[in-house]
Amino acid sequence: MPRKTAKLAAAPLLAGGLLIAASTANAQASAVNGQKLAQRHCGACHAVSDLKSPLPGAPAFAKLYLRYPQGRLDQVLSEGMLSPASPPEEGSPQTHPRMPQVKFDDDQRADLKAYLLSLDPR
Question: How confident is the model at residue 97, as a pLDDT?
Fold first, then answer.
């Protein structure tokens, strides 16, 4: 293959590699941001970095995955822990009986979810 053609053929591979590296960095950054959000908004009751929660009965985030089936994190978060992104058409949003609802924007939701998924060993 001529040298110029080889360089042109390598360009998409290089770009793809950079994209993968950037995606990995973004995923790590999101989990880090999610941990900060969890500490700020949930850490008064839940153990975010430790295994023992300040509030007895509040599950530690490190073991939270044991409370929901694999792939069902969105459902758990929408069951009253996070305010809905948009209000329901009828009635009130579902709330958790013992937790205040937290209002996050889409990026914050994604960050929190990335953090929680990073703790799930399944």
Answer: 64
